[in-house]
Amino acid sequence: MTQRLNDGSIAKSFVITPKVDERREFLEISRDFGNPLELVREAVSNSYDAGAEEIQILFDMVQSAGEDVLRICINDDGEGMDEGALQAFFDLGNSPRREQRLQDPTVILIGEKGHGTKVYFNSARIEVTTCRGADQDEYKAVFDKPFARLNDSESSLEVQVTSRQPPSWWHGTRIEILNYNKSRRGRFSHAQLRDYVLWFTRFGSVRDELTDERDPTVMRLKGLDREEPEKLVAGHVFPKESPPTSKLLDDYMVKAPDHYARRLRRRGHLPDSPDIAYDASFWVEGDGIKSEYNPMIRRQGKPRQEGSYQVQERYGLWLCKDFVPIEARNEWIITKGREFTKFHAFFNCQAFNLTANRGSVQNTPSEILAEAEKVCKGIYHEILGSTEWTDLEYLDEQAGAYTTLKNERRGLERRVKHIKNAPRCEYKGRTILAPKQEAGVYSVFLILSILEPDLFPFEVLDYDTHQGIDIVAQPRGDTPMTETKLRYVEFKYRLSAGFNHTFDNLHSIVCWELGRQVDEEVQDAAQNRRTLQKAPPGDGEPTKYFLDDPKSPRKIEVLLLPLFIDECCGIRFQ
């Protein structure tokens, strides 16, 4: 269309109609599901939306063209699909569920964007057989090489469909997928599949927990490492609430906090959006009780199984839509460290808007997320002031006291045993025990300094244990302290190759054992080196060891305490 403007110029206008590169969209969405297990989530969602009472999900390996190929079979006894629903199954953005949601917002329909089943396209073959029951046609749709054809702009995206009158009455859907995700199969062990189903699919939803409505659906699941399917009961797994704290202490003693489990449930509406409802369940659980019902938690001392995880990787606060956990928001319920790991909590709100792959609630308006956070923090602080939390704190205190008492008794027994068995000597009416650690070396030194004030060639001026046991000393003699060089004397049970002080400020070393041989090096904190040397006894002098540096006129004396007191005082430990 043309138009003459006031200045005499001619203006033209035209219309642009946005278009979609369907092939590219299909390809991108099929890749948008980063976790290969999300195929299971979509399969379960579709079966639930079809009203299935029994679902089968079976993984195995089959031979195809001489190669091992992953096969996934998904069967349900739902209402099946007619021609229109089958078309929507393969279409992008064509979802009859959206209309159902608009008619009744309370209906639980996991997928309404028409994206979910496109994760199946990341495969070599999709075969769908479906029927709506008596007097209805059975349809069989085969999409051969979907992923390869999506990558080839010249290839057709046609799905071949045949129909027939089924030989016997049945209704439901059977789906077979070959070479899914190029047969990468490390995530499809039975334990990993079971864990995913019970945490992140409609079958394992928390609706039962939040609404007390039992889900009668049954699943038969088989991973690659299992011969026969396992029958699973629907619903996320929770522990039983623990007995009173007194019984927990009687049954588990120091482990009582690990077996604690109490629940707080809340239902209401967002404070500034009273039209938006929420359901919340906050369990406070110890790690021990988690391990009782969750075999995928890593346990100290146990072999690590594939797909296992630490408590902090899975527990805390989960935001849910359609009662299925979507995204963890542990920062909403944390005041310090890993406190969130005590929570097994779920907050469901149908106002959350999800990303295409259902991996996040980030499409939700920020004001709704802010209100949800406010509610969750309110529940969290309510728990902190509740008997549920004070009971757990009491158990922690009792367990801590019991642990302290137990450790004290164990430590006392160990030390009594050492006293009875340690080498000892009698000197001037005192019993002296041979040390077993650095502090003991100082104790022997201290006792002997009192019994023989002039025994050691230095005087103690100050004592500290900040960086090992050491003293500040001055050489013994008549020189006033203000005129003499003050240095460290370091105490060691065993003289080793490394030293945590510098040689510059060291007067001498007192040790119980020599971990170095004569002529071997010792290195200080500044990486300076000296060699251990020995001067034999003579003229009333005891055997002397010292650390020598040819570049320095000052030698650092090493007192090997057992030899020194033997030669000076005749003290020998028996």
Q: Based on the structure given, which CATH architecture of the largest domain is correct?
A: 2-Layer Sandwich
Strand order of the largest sheet: 7-6-5-8-4-3-9-10
Q: What is the CATH superfamily of the largest domain? A: Histidine kinase-like ATPase, C-terminal domain
Give the helix level as a range of percent: 25-40%
Protein structure class:
alpha+beta
Question: How would you sum up the major sheet?
Answer: 8 strands, mixed
Kindly state the mean pLDDT as a whole number?
Answer: 86
Q: What CATH first level of the largest domain would be assigned?
A: Alpha Beta
- Look up the CATH topology of the largest domain: Heat Shock Protein 90
Distance between the termini: 114 Å
Number of domains: 3
Strand content: 25-35%
Number of strands: 25
Shape: elongated
Please explain how this structure is put together.
With 574 residues, this protein is of the alpha+beta class. The protein has three domains: 22-188 and 221-232, Histidine kinase-like ATPase, C-terminal domain (Heat Shock Protein 90), CATH 3.30.565.10; 245-296 and 304-397, 2-Layer Sandwich (Ribosomal Protein S5, domain 2), CATH 3.30.230; 424-569, no CATH class. It has helices at 22-31, 38-49, 83-90, 96-103, 146-151, 190-200, 207-211, 245-252, 287-293, 311-314, 366-384, 387-421, 438-451, 561-569; strands at residues 2-4, 10-12, 54-64, 67-76, 125-132, 138-144, 160-164, 171-178, 218-222, 230-233, 261-270, 273-285, 316-321, 324-328, 343-348, 424-427, 430-433, 458-464, 470-475, 487-495, 506-514, 521-523, 529-535, 544-548, 556-560. The strands form five sheets. The chain has an eight-stranded mixed β-sheet, covered by helices on one side. Strands 18-19-20-21-25-24-23-22 form an eight-stranded mixed β-sheet. Strand 3 and strand 4 (67-76) form a beta hairpin.
